[in-house]
Structure formats: structure tokens, C-alpha cells
């Protein structure tokens, strides 16, 4: 069965880039350009995995993450942070609070992000 | 088109960052020690700055003391800073016009009052500490804290306090010069915000360039054209350099403002070396240099893993870059409380005249046998700074032209005295920046 991934990211170019890579890797891809839409799509599309940017308009990734943590319906969906914020303390905090990954956009190539997501989906 | 646009703006941002870093480091060099012990107790209260700022034609030069005193009083009164005298029990004994302006109380209201009227309730405990230091004859210089005016408004101030003595040399009180630094603090805040925003703004287009090039390579946008391999590979190298430069500059700026966070843990440095070896294997293979690790069982170190790997990566990629044939060998040694990581290469070596410049900012030592100059000129500078913050160091141990160089990177072993000291210093840093 095809895995469905939701990419919540406000930079259009980056969204298109990750969307292309994940589609080529055999994923079904949904995208959202802000946190509010992202939260809606988490409810309606029921993705298997969410890639979440932090700095975003309307609802930041941080706020979305907090909302989802206490939502009985959504808290089961694995979320990995995909960001350019380089802050080790924040990274540790997200991982402690249940994020399944913290990927730095300028460090990993899209192929490496796909690889990481695949590993998490397979091994949990 | 779009890439050149990004790169252009990237470069503009980087230049702005460089200027900021330089300005900041100048400021840091000017910043004096916060507290110093008095060396030569002053017999009569005569602040230095008054003598220094005395105009040449001043009447005080050959006049009786009384006139000198009133001249000094007029300077004190016209100063922009608040100049406040207090007795040893903490009562206000003098209050200049600057103090009236800063704190809102007129002199006749303030004099005789406890000086605690300008202390915010949450900082009331500071007063007895300051008074006990004064009694010991200590000076307190440029202490950054918060005071309160007559309406309860908090004001960020930098305070210099000196003891006042009578004719017999007994300390009878203190004088404080309070400078309003609200504007400086606001500028500092804006600068930090600018740096964190630019870092994010810079990395976003850079990660798009990096990601898209990798995907063109991998055939995500159609079969790869052989003719494009070389230019794409060059764009890729340049992008990595820009990313590294942004990271280095941000780290330096964070270190200077005490905002770089260290996560100290206990780990085996050997594991970190193996990890960095894996990253550098392609580069080593390409240049046919052997990467060797002479392993031996040593105690764990206490450091920040990511920063340790950054330093190792820097030293090892430098060694590879400057070695044309032979090997780069890493060995470990336990010296007192420190673990030494020794990186020995069989490269071009470093000329005597270049050795003193090695650890300076933006200094790149040319590689005589290679046309490429890679790197940012910040690697060794940053590595040394990071290592020192963690209680270790980085230095050049030996070098001979055409024979090779040996660098040493030291880190405190877990539980040792330098490890505890580093922990303490890093914690103190964080608390201080919170206080301000």
C-alpha cells in the first residue's frame, strides 16, 4: 500500500521540490502552505506521516505541534520536523515531546529525507 | 536565473553578517571586566574621569581647592549620567541632575532616602551584596542590571560603583554612576533578531539550491546531461561553501554574544572520529589519501558531540585538502585530565611565517600545489574557540614544509577537573545572559 505523506511547509519552491522527490519515491503526497491548512489536512486526509516546518505564517509549526500533541485523533500520526532553525535545545525538546525526527533542510538532500522517512515508517 | 538571484542575495546577506560580526567583536574587545579589586585606594575622592576631561583653560589649574571643588561639582551636575552618592548604610547623600532626569525624583526628595527606592523589588537582594563589596574597598565596573524610576518603570542601566574614603582613608560611602543603556539593549536585541532571521532566510534558498541540484543529478527532472555534470558539481560545491559560511558566521556571532548553546554529554571520542571518517571517505578516496585511526582504549570525554564532530571534520578535511599523497592519521593520547586527538598528515606543511596567522579569522593559507581555495577561512578560528569553551583546545603541534603537519585537539576527560570547570563556565554564561 502506498504511504501518504503530508508536507506542511510555507516555501513554495521547497514544497514542490520535496513533493517531486516523494512522488518519485512512490509516496502519495499532500501539501499545505501554512499551519492552519496543515492542521485541517491532518484531519481530512489522514496522512501516514507528516513533515512539519517550524517558521510558517498563520499557525507556526511549533503551535501546530502543541495542538496535535493533545488531540486524541491526531496524536498518533508520526510527525518529523523539517526546518532550517538550528537550535540543539529546541531539537531535543521536539524529540522528547514525541517528534519522530528533526531534519535540517540545509544538511540533508531530499533523497536523504525520503530515506529517513522510509526508515521510520519501516522500523517505527 | 532564479538561482543567480538567490546566490546574489545570499552574498549580500553574508556580507552584512560579516560586518556585524566584526563590529560585535570590536565591542567585545572593548568590554571591560565587570568587577575588579581596588589596587590603590584613593585618599580623597577624586574620580579619574574628571581629571581626564578637564579642559586646558580650566580655572582649576592654578586655583585654590574650593574653586576646584565647585568646578567639579558643576561637571557632576551637568553630566548626562546619574551620579549618586550613598552612605555605607545605603542612604542617598548626593543626587545630580542626571539622576533627577533618569529616575524622576528631585534631589531634595531623594537625598536622605534609602537608595533601595531605585531598586526593583525583585532585585532588592542586590543592595546588601553591593554594600558589602564597597565596604571591602572593591570597585564594581559596568555592571549591567535594572533599576526603577519614581513611576515604577524599569530601566536597563550600566553601573560603575566606587568607594568613597575620608581623609584618614576610611571608607565612608560610595558613588555610583548609572548610565541608561535602554537603547543599546534594544540595538543588541535587534541585532540578535536580525542574525536569527537572516540565518533562516539564508538557509531556505540555499537548501532549495542544494536539494534541486541533487535531484537534477539523480534524474528527477529527466535524464542527466553529461555536459552539465561539471558545472552542476561546481554549483554544488559553491552552495556547500555558502552553507558552511553561514553556519560559521552564525556560530561565531553566537559565541561572541554568549548565546551558543552547548549540550555537554559523556561519550567516546573514538566513535565520533569513526563517524567523521565515514563522511570524509569519498573525499579521501578521490584524492587517494589513506585515512587511518590508531585506536586505543581511552576514557570518555565530556563535550558537545555535534561541536566535537564539527571540529574533527574541520581538522580532518583540512588535513586531506593539504595532503597530495600519503596519509592522514589520527591517534589518541591521555594526558593528565585531557584526551588528545592527534591529527598527523603527510601534506605540504605550513611555512614558519604562516603559523602565527593560522587561527585568525578569515585567514586562508594558500595551498601551493592546488589551484582550488576552498573553505571559509573561519574553520580553525571557530574550532579553537569551540574547543576552548568545552575546556579543551586546538593547536598546531608540529609542521615541516613538504613533510606534513600535526594538529592536536584536546578535550577534558569525563569527571576531570577541567570538565567540571567547563560545565560551570557554560552554565554561568547562560545565567548571565538571562540576567541581562
UniProtKB/TrEMBL annotation, chain B:
GO cellular-component term (any): plasma membrane
Molecular function terms, GO-annotated: ATP binding; histidine phosphotransfer kinase activity; phosphorelay sensor kinase activity
Any matching Pfam family: HisKA
Natural source organism: Candidatus Roizmanbacteria bacterium RIFCSPLOWO2_01_FULL_37_12
Catalytic activity: ATP + protein L-histidine = ADP + protein N-phospho-L-histidine
Keywords carried by this UniProt record: ATP-binding, Cell membrane, Kinase, Membrane, Nucleotide-binding, Phosphoprotein, Transferase, Transmembrane, Transmembrane helix, Two-component regulatory system
UniProt xrefs under CDD domains: HisKA, PAS
Protein name from the UniProt record: histidine kinase
Stored PROSITE patterns: HIS_KIN, PAC, PAS
InterPro entries: HATPase_C_sf, HATPase_dom, His_kinase_dom, HisK_dim/P_dom, HisK_dim/P_sf, PAS, PAS-assoc_C, PAS-like_dom_sf
Amino acid at each position: 500500500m502506498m504511504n501518504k505523506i503530508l508536507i506542511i511547509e510555507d516555501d513554495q519552491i521547497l514544497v514542490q521540490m520535496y513533493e517531486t522527490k516523494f512522488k518519485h519515491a512512490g509516496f502519495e503526497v499532500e501539501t499545505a502552505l501554512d499551519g492552519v491548512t496543515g492542521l485541517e489536512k491532518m484531519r481530512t486526509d489522514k496522512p501516514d506521516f507528516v513533515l512539519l516546518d517550524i517558521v510558517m505564517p498563520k499557525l507556526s509549526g511549533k503551535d501546530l505541534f502543541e495542538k496535535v500533541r493533545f488531540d486524541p485523533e491526531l496524536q498518533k500520526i508520526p510527525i518529523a520536523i523539517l526546518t532550517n532553525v538550528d537550535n540543539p535545545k529546541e531539537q531535543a525538546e521536539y524529540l522528547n515531546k514525541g517528534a519522530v525526527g528533526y531534519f535540517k533542510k540545509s544538511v540533508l538532500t531530499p533523497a536523504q529525507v525520503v530515506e529517513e522517512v522510509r526508515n521510520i515508517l519501516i522500523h517505527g | 536565473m532564479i538561482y543567480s538571484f538567490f546566490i546574489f542575495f545570499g552574498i549580500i546577506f553574508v556580507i552584512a553578517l560579516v560586518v556585524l560580526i566584526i563590529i560585535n567583536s570590536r565591542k567585545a574587545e572593548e568590554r571591560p571586566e565587570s568587577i575588579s579589586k581596588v589596587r590603590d585606594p584613593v585618599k580623597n575622592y577624586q574620580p579619574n574621569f574628571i581629571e581626564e576631561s578637564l579642559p586646558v583653560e580650566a580655572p582649576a589649574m592654578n586655583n585654590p581647592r574650593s574653586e576646584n571643588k565647585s568646578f567639579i561639582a558643576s561637571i557632576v551636575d551637568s553630566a548626562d549620567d546619574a551620579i549618586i552618592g550613598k552612605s555605607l548604610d545605603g542612604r542617598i547623600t548626593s543626587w545630580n541632575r542626571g539622576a533627577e532626569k533618569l529616575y524622576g525624583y528631585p534631589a531634595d526628595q531623594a537625598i536622605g532616602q534609602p537608595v533601595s527606592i531605585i531598586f526593583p523589588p525583585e532585585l532588592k537582594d542586590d543592595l546588601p551584596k553591593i554594600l558589602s563589596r564597597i565596604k571591602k574597598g572593591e570597585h564594581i565596573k559596568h555592571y549591567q542590571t535594572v533599576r526603577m524610576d519614581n513611576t515604577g518603570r524599569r530601566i536597563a542601566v550600566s553601573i560603575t560603583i566606587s568607594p568613597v574614603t575620608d581623609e584618614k582613608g576610611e571608607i565612608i560611602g560610595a558613588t555610583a554612576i548609572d548610565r541608561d543603556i535602554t537603547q543599546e539593549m534594544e540595538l543588541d536585541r535587534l541585532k540578535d533578531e536580525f542574525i536569527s532571521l537572516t540565518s533562516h532566510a539564508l538557509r531556505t534558498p540555499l537548501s532549495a539550491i542544494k536539494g534541486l541540484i541533487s535531484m537534477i543529478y539523480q534524474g528527477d527532472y529527466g535524464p542527466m546531461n553529461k555536459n552539465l555534470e561539471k558545472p552542476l558539481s561546481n554549483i554544488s560545491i559553491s552552495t556547500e561553501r555558502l552553507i558552511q559560511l553561514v553556519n560559521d558566521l552564525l556560530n561565531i556571532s553566537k559565541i561572541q554574544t554568549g548565546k551558543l548553546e552547548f549540550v555537554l554529554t559523556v561519550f567516546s571520542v573514538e566513535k565520533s572520529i569513526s563517524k567523521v571518517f565515514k563522511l570524509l571517505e569519498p573525499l579521501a578516496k578521490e584524492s587517494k589519501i589513506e585515512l587511518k585511526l590508531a585506536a586505543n582504549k581511552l576514557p570518555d570525554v565530556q563535550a558537545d558531540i555535534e561541536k566535537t564532530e564539527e571540529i574533527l571534520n574541520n581538522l580532518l578535511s583540512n588535513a586531506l585538502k593539504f595532503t597530495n599523497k600519503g596519509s592522514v592519521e589520527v591517534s589518541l593520547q591521555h594526558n593528565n585530565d585531557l584526551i588528545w586527538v592527534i591529527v598527523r598528515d603527510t601534506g605540504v606543511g605550513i611555512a614558519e611565517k604562516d603559523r602565527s596567522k593560522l587561527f585568525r579569522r578569515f585567514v586562508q593559507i594558500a595551498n601551493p600545489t592546488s589551484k582550488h581555495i576552498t573553505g571559509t577561512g573561519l574553520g580553525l578560528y571557530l574550532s579553537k574557540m569551540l574547543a576552548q569553551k568545552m575546556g579543551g583546545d586546538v593547536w598546531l603541534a608540529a609542521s615541516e614544509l613538504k613533510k606534513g603537519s600535526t594538529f592536536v585537539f584536546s578535550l577534558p576527560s569525563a569527571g576531570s577537573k577541567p570538565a567540571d570547570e567547563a560545565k560551570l563556565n557554560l552554565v554561568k554564561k547562560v545565567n548571565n545572559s538571562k540576567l541581562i
